[in-house]
Amino acid sequence: MNSICNIGLFLMGKKGFKRLDFILEKKGNFDIKYVVCSRDNSILDDYFKDIYDLCSRNNIKFFERSFFENDSNVDIIFAVGWRWLMHENLNKIIVFHDALLPKYRGFNPLVTALIEGDTEIGVTALIANEKMDSGDIVGQEIIEIKYPIKIEKAIDYVSELYSVLMYKILINYINKDLSRRVQDENEATYSLWRNNDDYRINWSESSSRIERFVNAVGFPYNFASTIYDGKEIKILEVTETQDLKIINRVPGKIFQISENKPLVICGEGILKIEKAIYLDSREEVRFNLLRVKMS
Predict the structure, then answer these.
(1) What share of the chain is helix, strand, coil (3-state, %, to 5)?
(2) Which part of the chain is the Formyl transferase N-terminal domain (predicted)?
(3) What's the pTM value of the predicted model, to 2 decimals?
(4) 71 contacts 99 by C-beta, under 8 angstroms
(5) How many other C-beta atoms are found inside a 10 Å radius of the C-beta of residue 100?
(6) How far apart are the C-alpha atoms of 68 and 35, rounded to whole Å?
């Protein structure tokens, strides 16, 4: 191996930007040979330009995904926030995944973990292979969380774990001390991709689950949505309130409105909408109709 460890990076999003910045600031026997990036239209700030600008300021070769040609002149490749299967140099690629594998293989694992109410979240580094997130694990970092928690804060927590784990792996790799363990297939679970339909609130669920859902798909994602008075609105802030013994419970119906904050009946529990905006105008919703059922 060369005295200098040559690194290739496949990066997306805030976590990818932070890892690039981290490696540039960190001193060690490693050098970034290139960065490959892609735009992400599913989030409000994809950090594509930030990654490009950082590469430009530091004279690092930058490639947009569709224009990258395989370069084997690197010792190790890190994939952070990357969502495509990779087919070349697999023995050199270490993928970072926002879950404690083998749990939540697949898409949006952090969002799924928050919706499910997991008390621990984290990141796994694994050797790439041809199957989704099933390669040997070379490291994991875990953090405990408490609810309510918004996705932006959870991303920040996990992002810090990325730095810790990436540096450990680099040092172990340079010292030829990178261990690996096989995933237990019997413990594997999967998380599906999300589209616009998956942002719609299901009022038949419990108020606690809906609160977690609203917080899990907020910024930088597109926010939870519902239909109010025939118009689609985005729900930005909610809080659980004390449940009532409603005999003819109908999920989605507004129970009462106080200071422009409606109480909405859920399958179990009641949720207060603290802030919402109209999808088309982005203006704040004025809740002035009581006899309305959200859908």
Answers:
(1) 25, 30, 45
(2) 89-147
(3) 0.89
(4) no
(5) 19
(6) 9
